[in-house]
């Protein structure tokens, strides 16, 4: 296995094509704020335009079949696109979009007609999707949905939705559509009483309220890719007698849990294969560790602190090793499908490791760099605020499953759980 991050000849040629295209198509005035809270609506709209342009070329979702609007490219080229975007401080897609979860869900569970109708807007960058799973009483216990989507008695081809979601979405409301998990039966047993929809967000009776949170996103989004994809702002969404036509139901009336499992498999870390099984891992450069090393070597005050204190040197080494292990996990995950193998624990293991690394990182950063990592005072910021953003993001371990939830998923994959 090749453990280097170097391109092969074909990738080098493709990388040049990608760089030339990005040079022409990424607006010169597009800024990359460290903090997502500093991204204006205008800047966000620029990213939406970039999504559409990438989508037209098939580069927004390079691995997905071209018949549905994807790029139909292999893993090698997909990795190049991700890496070249990251080198420009951008993510793929260059904004927060749960289309990354909706697209593989549709591919796995939608009818052919739905795939043809619902996939192209996502894959071509025309629709922004929010994932609406979490409720006040349904977080880790995702199956405990209280938002009802009950078939209308009068108009059987409609579902009537009532309830509310929390901790969902990203910049800026409203999105174009929701991937919406609901309860479809009040009588059926648990796990057989759920329905999933990919429904327009503009339906009458939907209300969206911002919910400002302390974190920017998760450590992975902030350090390995770009804060573009980090959901700093979340929302509550309320449904009052919302009528959803059954053409937006994914799977059968009571198949919601099966469909959710398809989404969660990707969300719990099985991203490296992007459901296409080609091993298209984006092997990230850990910008956080790189910048931290940079500070320790080149900032005289920090360098002296480390020289005087071997415990801080130890922290730095731990941070460095953590970054390396994380990178190697991604390489392993990418290599497995190429070798015709699959390890169900691999994705959640990487996700769990990244979360715990992020949490540990918050302590390493404060100890090594000092309390200025805890303030966003412009006068004191190091690396334009990267470390301060990482302090908040590292603490955010709930999205995509808490560490406890991931441990349960891993133990099931190891066949030692239910
Ligand atoms: C920044 C952010 C972004 C988010 N984005 C989205 C989004 O876009 N869409 C969406 O639908 N949701 C989103 N969420 C919600 C997220 O998925 C939930 O926060 C997460 O599933 C945990 O649920 P909870 O917060 O209700 O915590 P709880 O489920 O109440 O858990 C509380 C604690 O109890 C532990 N616990 C719970 N059950 C068990 C168990 N069986 N065994 C052991 N320990 C257990 C948990 O690990 C945790 O430590 C987001 C959350 C945040 C903070």
What does this structure look like?
- The chain has 418 residues and is an alpha+beta fold.
- The protein folds into 3 domains: 9-123, Orthogonal Bundle (Butyryl-Coa Dehydrogenase, subunit A, domain 1), CATH 1.10.540.10; 129-254, Butyryl-CoA Dehydrogenase, subunit A, domain 2 (Beta Barrel), CATH 2.40.110.10; 287-413, Butyryl-CoA Dehydrogenase, subunit A, domain 3, CATH 1.20.140.
- Helices cover 44% and strands 13% of the residues.
- The chain is built from 13 helices and 8 strands.
- The strands form 2 sheets. It has a 4-stranded mixed sheet. A 4-stranded antiparallel sheet has the order 2-3-7-6, with no helix packed on it.
- A hairpin with a 6-residue loop joins β2 and β3.
- α4 packs antiparallel against α5 (112-123) and α9 (300-308) packs across α10.
- It is globular.
- Flavin-adenine dinucleotide is lined by residues 131-134, 139-140, 167-168, 213, 215, 231, 234, 396, 398-399, 402, 404-405.
């Amino acid at each position: 296995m090749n453990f280097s991050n170097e391109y092969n000849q074909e990738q080098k040629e493709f990388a040049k094509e990608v760089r030339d295209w990005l040079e022409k198509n990424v607006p010169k005035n597009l800024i990359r704020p460290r903090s997502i809270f500093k991204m204006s609506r205008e800047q966000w709209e620029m990213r939406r335009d970039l999504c559409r342009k990438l989508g037209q070329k098939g580069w927004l979702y390079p691995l997905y079949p071209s018949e549905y609007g994807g790029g139909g490219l292999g893993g090698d080229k997909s990795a190049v696109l991700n890496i070249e975007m990251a080198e420009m401080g951008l993510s793929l897609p260059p904004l927060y979009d749960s289309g990354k979860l909706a697209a593989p869900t549709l591919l796995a569970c939608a009818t052919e007609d739905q795939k043809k109708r619902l996939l192209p807007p996502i894959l071509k960058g025309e629709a922004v999707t929010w994932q609406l799973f979490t409720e006040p009483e349904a977080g880790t216990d995702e199956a405990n949905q209280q938002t009802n989507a009950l078939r209308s008695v009068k108009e059987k081809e409609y579902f009537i939705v009532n309830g509310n979601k929390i901790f969902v979405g990203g910049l800026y409301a409203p999105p174009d559509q929701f991937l919406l998990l609901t309860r479809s039966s009040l009588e059926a047993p648990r796990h057989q009483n759920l329905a999933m929809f990919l429904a327009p967000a503009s339906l009458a009776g939907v209300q969206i309220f911002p919910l400002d949170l302390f974190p920017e996103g998760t450590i992975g989004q902030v350090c390995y890719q770009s804060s573009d994809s980090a959901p700093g702002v979340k929302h509550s969404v309320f449904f009052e007698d919302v009528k959803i036509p059954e053409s937006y139901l994914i799977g059968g009336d009571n198949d919601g849990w099966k469909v959710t499992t398809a989404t969660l498999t990707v969300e719990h870390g099985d991203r490296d294969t992007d459901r296409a099984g080609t091993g298209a891992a984006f092997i990230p450069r850990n910008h956080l560790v790189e910048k931290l090393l940079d500070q320790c070597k080149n900032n005289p005050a920090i360098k002296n602190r480390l020289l005087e204190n071997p415990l801080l040197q130890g922290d730095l080494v731990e941070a460095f090793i953590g970054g390396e292990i994380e990178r190697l996990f991604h390489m392993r995950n990418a290599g497995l499908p190429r070798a015709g193998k699959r390890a169900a624990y691999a994705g959640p293991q990487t996700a769990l490791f990244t979360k715990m690394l992020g949490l540990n990182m918050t302590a390493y950063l404060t100890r090594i760099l000092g309390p200025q990592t805890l303030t966003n005072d412009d006068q004191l910021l190091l690396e334009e605020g990267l470390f301060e953003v990482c302090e908040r993001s590292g603490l955010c371990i709930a999205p995509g499953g808490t560490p406890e939830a991931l441990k349960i998923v891993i133990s099931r994959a190891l066949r030692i759980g239910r």
